[in-house]
Amino acid sequence: MRDTIGSHVAVIHRYARRFFHVALAEYDLPFGAPPVLMQVLRGPAPRQEQLAVRLGLDEGTISRLVTRLEAEGLVERRPDPQDHRARTLHPTPQLEALAPRLRAAGHRLEERLMRRLSLEESASLTALLRRVAEDCAEDDAQDAIEIAGVAARSVSQHQEEGQ
Known about the structure:
Blueprint: H1 5-23, H2 33-42, H3 48-55, H4 59-71, E1 75-80, E2 83-91, H5 93-114, H6 119-162
Antiparallel strand pairs: 1-2
Helix pairs in contact: 1-5, 2-5, 3-4
């Protein structure tokens, strides 16, 4: 395997998912639920599609996961005050009670990931990753705008052809 950023990120991602799955096993959470729950707890209440973009998941995957978390009593969908067709995600009292355990697991994970780094290295890595993540978020937003434009042109073209 080549020594690439992507391969390292993939290893860390798999490790983090397994870590949370084991650390929170007593709660029988769906695999991949902790990042979703942490985003819901962080606020303000995200829309499901915003959450999908933030976490790099497709909307079908996030929809199934949120449906399961809602059935488990951890999240609640409510109408978005700005757009009643959309739904925002809110923590339930059950999730609020679980929040300290989620946060503690997150801190333990960070400690494990950074255990071989000095404080200076850890701070530098965090700052660099933040910058890379911000660039990725900007690219995702631009890609979403471009995809929406292509979809709108395609619909328009089909409508014109149908006339």
